[in-house]
Amino acid sequence: MSAEIKGLNEECGIFGVWQDEHAAERTYFGLHSLQHRGQEGAGIVTVQANGRLLEHKGLGLLADAFSKPEQLAQLTGPCAIGHVRYGTAGTHGIENIQPFLFHFAQEDVALAHNGNLTNAVSLRTELEQDGAIFRTDSDTEVLMHLIQRQKGADFKARLKASLREIKGGFAYLVLTKNALYAALDPNGFRPLVVGRLDNGAYIVCSETCALDTVGAHFIRDVQPGELITIDDSGYHCEPFTTETQLSICSMEYIYFARPDSTIYGVNIHQARQRMGRRLAQESPVDADIVVGVPNSSLSAASGYALESGLPDELGLIKNQYSARTFIQPTQELREQGVRMKLAAVKAVVAGKKVALVDDSIVRGTTSNYIVRLLKEAGAKSVHLLISSPPLKYPCFYGIDIENTQELMAANYTIPEMCAKIGADSLHFLSLEGLIDAIDLPSHEPNRGLCVAYFNGDYPTPLYDYAATFKQPKTATKVMQ
Ligand SMILES: O=P(O)(O)OC[C@H]1O[C@H](OP(=O)(O)OP(=O)(O)O)[C@H](O)[C@@H]1O
Ligand SMILES: NC(=O)CC[C@H](N)C(=O)O
Ligand SMILES: [Mg+2]
C-alpha cells in the first residue's frame, strides 16, 4: 500500500446543494475549496430529471477525477452531493471513493461521509450474518444497509433509526430524489455547516470556506445529534438523538481546517494565532526571530511573534508541488519526502537564534529534518515550539493517527524528544492553554472540544477499537 508523505493526513470533505441550476458545477467549486481535506479521490452525484441519480468519480485530486469537461457536464439536475476522500477505513482504491450510489427498485440513494465509525466492523459482521452483501470495505457503507433493513415506508424514519445505531465520528450527506439529508454524530466531532445562495438554493458542507467560494451565506452550524432535511419546502432541523455532548475535534482548529473557515463561531486563523500567543506567554525563549513551519503553523507563528515582540521571518519555504508524492511509507522515504517539501532561507536564518513554531509533532520526521536544516543553514540555536500539547493517544473518530506506536510523544518524554530532534529546547502548549486559546463558547466538558489525543479522555466508548487499544508508554494515567 502506498501513502502520501504527510505528517497528518486529512479527513474528507463533503458538499451538497439543493435546487440550484448549476448544482454539479457548484459542487465542483465547493469541493475544490475543501481539497485540503482529502486528495485520494473525488466524486459528485446529481438527481437527474427522471428522478434517478447519476455519478462520476475518480482517483486523485478533484481536477484529476474530472479531467474531461463532459464528466461534469453529464451531471445534470438541480440537486447534488460531492466528496473528496482521505480514507480512514478500508483500502485506497476507486471502489471506496465516495459518494456511494445505490440503485434500488423503488429509488436511488447516495451517501457521502466525513469521519470514522467505531462500530462499523461489528455492525458489518452482524449484517453479513444476516445476508447483507457489501460492495466496499469502507465503514461508510454500513449506514445504507441499516437504512434498507429498517421496517416502514418512511425514509426519514428509517434514516433516523439507523443513525442511532452507528457510533463514532460522522458527518453524513444522504441524497434522494425527494430530499437532501445532513446528519452529524452526537458529539459533533466533524464540522458541518448550512448556507444559502442568493438564488434560494441550500448548501450543506464541511467548512465555511466552501460557502464563501460558491458565494453562499452562512446560516448555521449543524449541531451534534441533529438531522437536517432540505427539500422543496425549505429546510428543517430535528434531533435524531438527545444524548449529545459537543466534542468537536480540536485538531480541526490546530491543523485540519482552512484558516479562512469558522467553526462554531471561532475563526481558524485567529484561534491558531491565539495558540501562538499563549505559547509565547507559557514558553518564552531566547531568540532573534520567529520562523513558522509552512503551511499550517504560519498563523500560530504570527501569534508567537506578536506576543513576544520578535520579528516573524520567512525562514522556511514549502515547495507547493510536492504534496502528492505517493511513495512507500518507510521512514527513510518519509524523510526524503520532507526534504522535497521544505527548504531553509539561508540569508534569513544564518547567525540567528531561531524560535521555530510548528503546530504538532506526529512521528517527528518534520521537526527532526527542519532543526537539522536550519542548523546547516547557519542558525546559532533552534528552539522548537509546538502550538498544541504532545500527541500521545490515537484518534478513532476520523483523523488518521490510529496507532500509538507511531506517535513520538507516546514513546518518549519531552527531554528525550528534544534530544532525538536535536533542538536546543522543546516546548508544547499546555492543554489548558489550548482550550483557552480556541475559546469555544460552550459549557460542555473541555469547552466543547475533543482533546482525547492529548489526554486519553475519549468522549465515547471505543467499541471495535477497544480490544487493540494500546496505552502510550508516556501515559500519565491508566485508562479504565
Ligand atoms: O511529526 P511529523 O510526523 O513530521 O508530522 C507533523 C507535521 O505534519 C503536519 O504538517 P504536513 O506535513 O502535513 O503539512 P502542512 O503543515 O503543510 O499541512 C504538521 O503541521 C507538522 O508539520
Ligand atoms: N477521512 C474520512 O472522513 C473518511 C471517511 C470514511 N471513513 C472513509 O474511509 O472513506
Ligand atoms: Mg505542518
Automatic annotation (TrEMBL):
It comes from the Bacteria. Its cofactor is Mg(2+). SUPFAM superfamilies: N-terminal nucleophile aminohydrolases (Ntn hydrolases) (SSF56235), PRTase-like (SSF53271). Residues 12-233 form the Glutamine amidotransferase type-2 domain. Transmembrane segments: none annotated. The active site is at residue 12. Pfam families: GATase_6 (PF13522), Pribosyltran (PF00156). Pathway: Purine metabolism; IMP biosynthesis via de novo pathway; N(1)-(5-phospho-D-ribosyl)glycinamide from 5-phospho-alpha-D-ribose 1-diphosphate: step 1/2. Binds 1 Mg(2+) ion per subunit. In the C-terminal section; belongs to the purine/pyrimidine phosphoribosyltransferase family. Its EC number is 2.4.2.14. This is Amidophosphoribosyltransferase.
